[in-house]
User: Fold these one by one.
Assistant:
Number 1:
Amino acid sequence: MKKKLLIIGAIVVVVVIIVVNLTSDTSKSTKVQATVASATDLTEMVSASGRIQPQTKVDITSEVTGEIIDLRAKEGNSVMAGDLMIVLDTVRLRAEVDQARYALTETQARLEGAKASFDQAYEEYQRQDKLYKDKLTSETAYNNAKYTYLNARATHEAAQAQTKQLEARYAQQLDNLSKAKIVAPMSGIVTFVDCEAGEIAPAQTAFTQGKTLMTISNLSVFEVEVEVDETEINKVELNQSVDIEVDAFPDTVFAGEVVEIGNTAILAGVGTQDQSTNFSVKVIFKDPNVRIRPGMSATVDIITSERQDALAVPYSAIVMRAFDLDSLERARAAEQEQGSSGVVAEVQAADEPAAADTAADSADTAGSEEGEREEIKGVFVIRDGKARFVQVETGIADQKSIEVTAGVVDGDSVVSGPYRVLRTIKDGDNVEIIKKRGGEGD
């Protein structure tokens, strides 16, 4: 009896196993997120951050060294072009003007004496020349008159040159004296002051930068100077519209416009992992706002392109796959004959070599495989429960979606996640949608 029970139990177990195997789905499905390709409005933007500054500003420095004895302007003052801003001590400058004038007066007197000697020598030379031609004087007297004349002429010319030199020096000293009074070169607002009465203002020369004493800015027009990465600078053009967000006004978006694009690259972090190549772009505010202040932080979104009713998929859905070139060509030929919609079918993905391959085979084929692979951009479209790789052509993109101009039609469900799945999924894999966006629910 016990033996019969054991046999019956074994039979039941076998039957249960067979039933389970027959009823269960032996295929393994990859759980994916899916999004329906649909028409939407896309706005492509290039974003960057920078600081607000007046479009026009002038840094005022002193052209002569002197003590500041009078400071007429303060930060925040409104000034007009020509207004007196700073007065420097003129004692030393006036002394230098007096010295230059005295030296010039002396040289002018010497010039008059040289001119009289020159005229006298010239007249004597002309008289001796006439007498010598008429043979009424000796050759010695003629030569003495000639050389005296030539010497007087040279002395006169030297005195003229020295006089002109001292005239230029005198004019320069007068100019330096006039620069002791620093006036506003333009109308605007004093936005920066870095000097005090009693301080020595250093002169700016060809060899020294000098010190910025104050800054006058035109606050009617503001701009933001940002740096755009080299990979995106080709999208930026003059007069493009810009949305400007100022950190100080989080709920306000200001309208702007691109007015200047730099031609010289700005290198940062050279020789490090953070090395970057950027280009300067200037954006102006279209509408003046009295609440904006120089130095405020701002973020600009440069609108580089817009598209209405563009067929789009999530940016994350776009993947790159390397395929065997020969099988790819066969698949494309088959697609043309069958009029398929772009699915790259029966194509061997150029993944890593199988573990069963020998080292010798890998060495023999390594060089040839590199030349036979082709990187293809595409998406995985879900059809009949399987992921099918579809080659696509793309257009503009915003922060979330990208335009698809070929390869996908409106209503196609594409695999949009998770990221780890998109890295490993292959053409023909069974998939199960766990989250669907842009269409009906799960």
Note: Residues 91-133 form the longest helix (43 residues).
Number 2:
Amino acid sequence: MADSRFEGMNLPQRGEIEIDEQEIDGRKRFLEFRAEDAEALKSLGPIAQKYADPVIEDLYRHFLSFDETRAFFRDPQVLERVKRLQKEYFVQLTRGDYGADYVRNRLRIGTVHERIDLAPKWYLGAYSFYLRAVANRLLEAFGKDPRKAFSAFLSLMKLVFLDVGLAVHAYIAARESTMRKQQEAIRELSTPVLQIRDRLLLLPIIGVIDTHRARLITEGLLRSIRLNRARVVVMDVTGVATVDSKVAQHLLQTVAAARLMGASVIVTGLSSEVAQSLVALGIDLGTLNTVGDLQGGIEEAERLLGYRVIRATETGTGPQPAERS
């Protein structure tokens, strides 16, 4: 069975990284890649067709000699497919057309490398191998005119460095996108809104709160209030070590927004350090309903909801659930 990491790697992907024509032209100018370079590379088409297979075989012989890269090609079908794609890449270097479609394909290569978790050092090494291998082939093809071989090689080197820049650009952008998604998922998991009783929610907050996370907390809480038709929320900040003025103001806004949606918020677990910080910052805490610890907060919430906890000794029938008074 083929490795799913490589599925669709030669197909356009939705949400691809795009670079406009102005950026493409700027990169070419910086590398001094001109029309004459494109023509020089186009003239190498027959040579590329002749040497494509041996160059690719040499490349993958080199790849498979290292444990780290060999791990990507355990499946023979995957290996053959990637070889075919690499051959297409090799031949495209001498097509002479290096516009938007060419750039889009190169960007896709970097995205695929990030998706399969192939470290940049390996595909940068592959580019180096390409250049060395092609240099030798050009010397063979232009044996009587080494100056022509060198001139063609310089044009190829400019194009390869354009490709390297595009692939690295796409790799970094894809990795940053992956990291952002992971951070979003971690933040959402780190601030769950729990329903512990009908119309009663618990929001335990642990760790550092920055402005972005504070906004996520607010959005998640308000959404849960609406979905659960909550009337009381216990916001426990026992696990929060520090709160700055921006975050404090945001939490106060969260309490106000919850109140507008018909839910009262009880803040529990304020540490002495956080309390002193809030006082020192001059934050107006008059609108906050605070209780010392989580248990006290839940008891206060149950009181607001009209629940009454009955001890088992009062009924003689074992543990009893809380009842409305």
Note: The CA atoms of residues 31 and 158 lie 6 Å apart.
Number 3:
Amino acid sequence: MALGREKKSVARTGAGNADEAVAPALRIAGAYSWRILLVVAVIAVLVFLVSTLREIIVPFMVAVLVAALLVPLVQFLQRHRWPKWLAVALAMLGTIAIVAGLIFVIVSQVRSGYPDLKLRSIRAYDDFTVFLAASPLHLGDAQIQTYIDQTLAAFQKDGRSLISGALSFGTTAGHVFAGVLLATFATLFILIDGTGIWAWIVRLFPRNSRRALDGSGRAGWATLTKFVRVQIFVAFVDAVGIGLGAWILGLVFGGFPLVVPIAIIVFLGSFIPILGAVVTGTLAVFVALVYLGPVPALIMVGVVIAVHQLEGHVLQPFIMGTAVRVHPLAVVFSVAAGSFIAGIPGALFAVPIIAVLNVMVNYIAGNDWRTPAPDRPRPKAKDVLPHA
């Protein structure tokens, strides 16, 4: 027995000497390394699952964003003694009516103006080729077509992930219809029984971790609600800025068509932070170039850049940063990473995901959930989530 204890003591001493032989900095680096690798592996698995189940996850994420906007409305109506079923019905039907109205305005006006836009585009292209042929560059039709083909090939190569992400919501009409139904029903159930759904999710975790998970989830939901409100305001400012600029150009240079559809498209595109307003604003530049000429098009470029600067240097850092506590640099990189991984849906959901995770992690790391302050009562479910 003594010999056995001696061998174990020697083994432990040898292990201790081996650990002590490694430099402290290297031990710390090794401890961080395997933990970082574990986190990266978990993230990779999550990305794989999201990519595999994107036709289910994308509608669910849309439903969560819409519910974060509608839950305060439903709670407001209930506080004013509206029946819950009537408040939910008004919120859902009102949202559907607004979205359908916007789509109808875009389709109807674009459809009525498309023939003239097509003719003017062909005429503008012919004038541009004549200008290039008479310029010092002396570019012929064959050379111009070669450059156009190269540009299209580069766009197809570099934008393949973006296009595939845009089509990931459904490559057929049936998939799109199924996604819309999933998003609608998910939004409806979140509005009706969001607290019950969240309580069921919390009960799936060990009892010791439920308080931390519950508090972090409620903090994340509050942040998501703020994000949706602020993003709607930012999108409204972008749409008004670019639409007003196009309308003023039309007054000065003799008419700017499709102002309302362009403003609506900018509003919808601005839900992708930083990039959305610029990408959709190029449509206004194209219309100005085709209908009004190069000088108004350059002025329209200045308007789009000015709106982008307003968003990037005022709205995003101060308003959005204050609401969701995410640095503008993190917003830019999260949008880029999201678009690279999942295309347009990834760019749309990147910022809210980063903002919610940031708040949840900080809440858990802050240990406020361990000893709640007696003078600060725990927020009730009705303050952040819909009633059960």
Note: The chain has 13 helices and no strands.
Number 4:
Amino acid sequence: MTNIIIAGAIGLILSMLGTPVAIRLFSRRGYGQEIREEGPSGHHGKRGTPTMGGTVIVLASLLAYGGSHAATLTPPTVSGMLVLFLMTGLGAVGFLDDFIKIYKQRSLGLRSGAKALGQLVVGAVFAVMVTQQANVYGITPAEPRLSFLRDFGPSIGIVGFTVWVLIMIVGFSNAVNLTDGLDGLASGATGVVLAAYVLIGNWQLRNNCIDQLGPNCYWVRDPLDLAVVAAAVLGALIGFLWWNAPPARIFMGDTGSLALGGVLAGLAIATRTQLLLIILAGLCVIITMSVIIQVGSFKLTGKRVFRMAPLQHHFELKGWAETTIVVRFWLIAMLCSALGLGLFYFEWMPR
């Protein structure tokens, strides 16, 4: 538990103090956000706001994780390092995307093929490594199986598992990217999911099958360290949100959104709660579905379901204030996370 508190505190302090430094540095160098011309008119006033703030989140998270282990004199674990590798790798892909946008002064960065390739390469390395590196009890960070509250069903094989992991990683990194359309929206939405994973990791530690074998115990390799990872990123995200809340003084950019989507997918895979993430991160899933519905409807019927997708922009065009949308979507994110946690703990409730 000490590791969790220290990781969260270090992440918060580093991000809180580091973000204004990044704002000044990026502003001085002209690393400002480009705005799509077809977007809501109210966004044009945000042109030039510093972006790539996700670099602060990633760096603060890594330092917080390392600092917590140094403070408690405990070694990092394979599970924790793999999830952080996934976060950092996807953050690097996002950084390239953001840098190209800034360098070429346009709202589009990497070509979609190049961006997807970067996500797939990082994800494939993670997918292969996560099924190896067993501990002394023979438990690997993940098994080639599907999971909800724990693994279920037969093995789907390393190839099938790799494909499934890539779908999760690409899906959730892009889902957070689509959610990142209003000031503070993605930060708050992913923050509540990370908070849920702090609780999930801690609960899995207290009910692991090594210490107490039982019908509801968890075969998770490093549950405490996964909670430490979640706490480190959560602390960094809260510190960043202080400056990213409406009106934002800095944007996380693709650097942050891809990294956050990656860490959510990585935590779900390593804690054996893959399908539960769909509920925990329900807001991101809903926003992604709005884009799929919009595109599908237009291609099939020539008509649009929403005034604009992703969903948050639909409500902007209906006249909702940006802060109203952000706060209400945060509430939806909290409800989704609470529902996911409720399902997670349901089997432990007395009957």
Note: The chain has a mean pLDDT of 91.
